[in-house]
Every structure is written in C-alpha cells, then in structure tokens.
Design goal:
The complex is a heterodimer of chains A (213) and B (327). Chain A is mainly α. Chain A is 40% helix and 1% strand. Chain A folds into 3 domains: 99 residues, no CATH class; 46 residues, no CATH class; 43 residues. Chain A is built from 7 helices and 1 strand; from the N terminus they run αααααααβ. In chain A, helix 2 packs across helix 3. Chain B has 2 domains: 168 residues, Clam (outer membrane lipoprotein receptor (LolB), chain A); 112 residues, MucB/RseB, C-terminal domain (Phosphorylase Kinase, domain 1). A 12-stranded mixed beta sheet of chain B has the order 7-8-9-10-11-1-2-3-4-5-6-12, with helices on one face. A 7-stranded antiparallel beta sheet of chain B has the order 13-14-15-16-19-18-17, covered by helices on one side. In chain B, a hairpin with a 2-residue loop joins strand 4 and strand 5. With 327 residues, chain B is an alpha+beta fold. The chains are: A mainly alpha (213), B alpha+beta (327). Chains A and B meet through helix 2, helix 3, helix 4, helix 5 and helix 6 of A and helix 1, strand 1, strand 2, strand 3 and strand 4 of B.
C-alpha cells in the first residue's frame, strides 16, 4: 500500500478527512483487503496502547453524558495530532463519525427489480424457481435521515429480526453475528409505496428469467 | 521389489492421499462449522471487533458468558449512537439510543422441527460449496478458514476464520454469488474463558430514558408443528420449512414461518395490517445485511426478512401473496 494511502487511512482514523473523500476511502477500505488489514492493525495498536483489561471503551452514551454534564472534556482529535503513531488510538472517535455514513437506504432505480411495484403475483405452477442475475440491479446505498414514522417501521423490522434470530435454527448458526445488523444500522424502507398495494394478480417476472447462474 | 514398481506404488499412495485430502475438505469444513456452532453458544468470550460494510465502519463489543445460570450476552456499539442487544434467559432486549426506544422479545420455545444437520449444506443441489483451508493470526490467535460459497443468486456466501483451539469466530465475511464482499467483521482483541470481564454484561442504559416499544403481534404466540395456514408454492432451491408459530387466542391473524437451506434462514410473517405509525412501508428494506420485503394482500400484510439477497425475500413474499390470494 502506498505511503499516500497510509496517510489517508491515518487521516480517516483521525477524523481529519472530508466527507466525500471519507466516503471514498471507506468504500475502498471495504473492498481492499490490504487496506482492511492495515485498519485492523491500527486497531490492534490502539488496543496495545490502551491498558490491558481496562474498560476505556468510549461509548456514545458515555461521551454524550460526560459532555452534557461538563465533567470533563471529551478527548478531541487534535490532542492526538502530535504523534501520528498514536492516531489509531482515536479510532473510536472516527468510527463514531464514520458511523454516520452507515445508514443505508435502498432507492428505486431505473433498473429496478422486476415485479417491484407489482401487485399480487400470478399463479405460475409450471414455471421453475430459477435464480436471476441481480448484479446489475442491486440497490444503491445512500445516506439518509429518518422521520418518526420511518423509525417506527425500523423498530418493527428490528422486532421481526429479533424473533427471526430466535427462531432460525440453521446448522451454521453464528451466534451474536446475527444481531450485529440491529446494533449497527437503523433501517429504512424503500419509497416505492406502490408495492403490494393492489390485489390483482400479476406475473412475478423474476421467477421466469433464465439468467440463473 | 524392483525400483519401478516401488515408484509406481509411491505414486499411487501419493495420488490416493491427494484424492482423500480433496474429498475430505468439505468434511473438514463441516467439522469446523460444528465446532464453531458449539463454541459460539457454549463458551464464554469477549472482544472488540470492527464491522465493515459498504458505506461504513463501526466498532462493537461483545461479551458472551455461559455458566450455571445459562447464557448471557451483551453486544453494543462502541462508535456512533449507543445501540445494544442484551440476551439472557428472559429474552432479547434491544436498546436504541438514536430512537430513544427499546424493542424486546420474549424467549420463544424451540422449534418442533428438527435442527437441520450440517450435512445438508454441502449435499447436492443445496446451493453451497464448502472449502477448508487458509491460516492466519487474528487478534493474537491462530485461525483457520472455512469458506461457504453460494452456487446461485438466492443466497450469500461466508468466510469464517475460526480460532484454532476452540473454533470460536474471529473473522467473518459475507459475500454474494459473484464473490463481491457485502460485510466483514474482524476482532481486534479477543478473550476466552476466565479472562472475560463479567461486569461488561451490565447495561449502562437507564431504562427511564427509553420508551418501550410494544412488540405488537409477536406477543402471545406459540411454536407449533401444525401445517401453516399459507405456504409459498415455490421456494428457492434447498429451502424448506424449519419452524412455524402462530398467535394464540382469537385476536387477529399471525403466522410466522422460517424457511432455511441449512445455513441461511428467511422468516415469513403474515398478519393483519397494523397501525400506520408502526407499519413497515411496502417494498424492499434493509436492516444491515438483512433484506426485508413487505407487501399487502387484502387485509393482510406479508413481511419476509433474512440475510439473503433482496431477490430472495421478494420472490418468497410474492409466492406467499399468491397462496394468500388463493385461499
């Protein structure tokens, strides 16, 4: 990885990178294994700097509380600037800012999945259940904010997922991993309100495609 | 024995071992997955991990304790708004600071359906291919890799890096049929057994700061082995009914079915339309790596959710709508 990339990563950990560049870097971080491993190493360094066994995990709640009570100043990014090798220690702070980008909305696209906006599907007993090629039609993610009603819908989906995780008895159960999406991400709904509103049967075209792998 | 036959014998043995090694890979992968499943539920562990997915990087902490009192677990966000999930013998509690709300679910009985054996994952026509191999050092622990690749677009694939001694999960990756990564999770510190700090199981969220969300129709439901009232006529290959529950009493319709291919699971909820405030909008939604699809059919709302591609939840929901419409 180039020196420039390392510096960018360091800046990201410092929270010193602008919104657009930060988004670009997190996308790269997501797809670049080497960069991902470097990020992981930075976190390891942070953990080494931290006293072993200590509970200096700064939660959003505790930061907010200490700020509002004015008990002590929450450590800022600038306090780490004098030593670049200590920058990974501020990973938690940048993770908080990066988390703002973690809200995902799927928006209807021109190449929307067939059948979206469809009404009740048609009986198609003779047609096989085949796998369509969805690569070109994956939803696009974007930052979003949530209205109270969306929040209610999000909470309802969380409740569905809580129950789902309790009931799903799959062989390769991964324990806590199935609850990570609830902790990580607020939910949004797609704004294609026409979906599922009508009751008249229509074909479910994705079942008919032969583009399966 | 002459030199030539001896060489031939050595070659034969070598080829045989090579064949065995190849044939044994899925078996070894299954063995490690079994170890993971057992370890994840029956061992005590604690650690900080980074969760990376398209558009975001977040840091979380997990404490999982198994002792004579049962299983207790707390998962919480270290970055961003405070969100946590607490699991114990009472049920599951989800605290969401950003919406000042708490979502809870009672403990539900185990399914009457038998748990699917790991062998179904790698048998023919189940949609997955298992591989075992790769070594790494993660969070100070040696790890081995198990890869489960999807063979169609109806399910995702997984990379598991498992702690060599225990089988505990140290690194996890989710990818689609084109092997494009969807999410990754990596521990940066990890403790096992007596090194676990039990005090971290305690939530630092004050109950009075949150509004408890009514879990609506999920209350008063029972798991049953009876046949569901509605079932999709068609399902993606390898998916079968794994669990069914319905509402007790006469107050409204509620049917919950879980369909699984042995690894991925999809829940189908069929219930009466709810209050507009709490309703999930029709269409595709995302909850992290889970996709959900909601549609309405008559007076009923159908919601399908699971860690599978959007196309899968949508197709199952539409098949369920067909079944509802015809009954």
């Amino acid at each position: 990885m180039s020196k420039e990339s390392l510096e960018h990563l360091s800046s990201l950990m410092d929270g010193e990178i602008s919104g657009e560049a930060g988004s670009f870097l997190t996308r790269r971080l997501f797809s670049d294994d080497e960069m991902c491993e470097t990020w992981e190493r930075y976190h390891l360094i942070r953990d080494c700097i931290r006293q072993p066994g200590s509970k200096h995990v700064v939660t959003g709640m505790s930061v907010k509380l200490s700020t509002s009570l004015g008990l002590e100043e929450v450590p800022t990014v600038s306090s780490w600037r004098s030593n670049r090798w200590l920058k990974p220690a501020s990973g938690l702070a940048i993770a908080a800012s990066v988390a703002l980008m973690a809200i995902v909305v799927t928006a209807p696209q021109p190449g929307q999945l067939p059948g979206e906006g469809d009404t009740a599907p048609n009986a198609s007993a003779n047609q096989p259940f085949v796998s369509p090629n969805t690569v070109a039609r994956l939803p696009v993610s974007q930052a979003a904010s949530f209205a109270p009603q969306q929040q209610a819908g999000s909470n309802r989906l969380s409740a569905y997922l809580l129950r789902h995780n309790q009931m799903a008895r799959t062989a390769g159960r991964q324990g806590f991993v199935s609850f990570v999406p609830i902790v990580a991400t607020p939910t949004t709904s797609v704004a294609d309100a026409s979906n599922g509103e009508s009751e008249s049967p229509e074909p479910v075209s994705e079942l008919d495609t032969s583009e399966n792998k | 024995m002459s030199g030539l036959p001896r060489k031939a014998l050595l070659l034969l043995i070598s080829v045989s071992f090579s064949t065995l090694a190849t044939a044994g890979e899925p078996g070894k992968a299954r063995e490690w997955l079994e170890r993971m499943t057992t370890a994840m539920s029956q061992m005590s562990y604690q650690g900080t991990f980074v969760y990376v997915r398209d558009g975001g990087v977040e840091t979380m902490r997990i404490t999982h304790v198994t002792d004579e009192t049962g299983v207790r677990e707390r998962l919480y966000s270290v970055s961003g708004p405070h969100r946590e999930v607490i699991r114990n013998k009472k049920g599951v509690r989800c605290v969401l600071q950003d919406s000042s709300s708490v979502v809870e679910d009672q403990v539900v009985a185990s399914s009457y359906f038998p748990e699917l054996p790991l062998s179904v994952i790698d048998s023919e026509n189940t949609g997955y291919r298992l591989e075992f191999g790769g070594e790494a050092r993660i969070a100070g622990h040696s790890a081995r890799r198990v890869t489960i690749s999807p063979e169609d677009n109806f399910r995702y694939g997984y990379d598991f890096w498992l702690e060599e001694q225990t089988g505990l999960l140290l690194k996890w990756a989710l990818f689609n049929a084109e092997h494009k990564p969807i999410a990754k999770l990596m521990f940066t510190d990890f403790s096992i057994g007596s090194a676990v700090d039990m005090s971290e199981l305690e939530s630092d969220s004050r109950a009075e700061d949150f509004v408890e969300m009514n879990t609506f129709s999920l209350l008063n439901t029972v798991v049953t082995h009876s046949k569901p009232r509605w079932q999709p006529a068609k399902l993606p290959p390898g998916f079968n009914l794994a669990s069914h529950s319905h509402k007790t009493g006469a107050d409204g319709v509620y049917e919950h079915m879980v369909y699984s291919d042995g690894l991925a699971a999809v829940s189908v909820y069929v219930e009466e339309k709810s209050d507009a405030d709490a309703a999930v909008k029709p269409g595709v939604s995302q909850l992290g790596t889970n996709n959900a699809y909601t549609r309405q059919q008559g007076d009923l709302q159908i919601t399908v959710i699971g860690e599978v591609p959007a196309i899968t939840v949508k197709a199952i929901a539409n098949e369920m709508a067909l079944s509802v419409a015809s009954n």
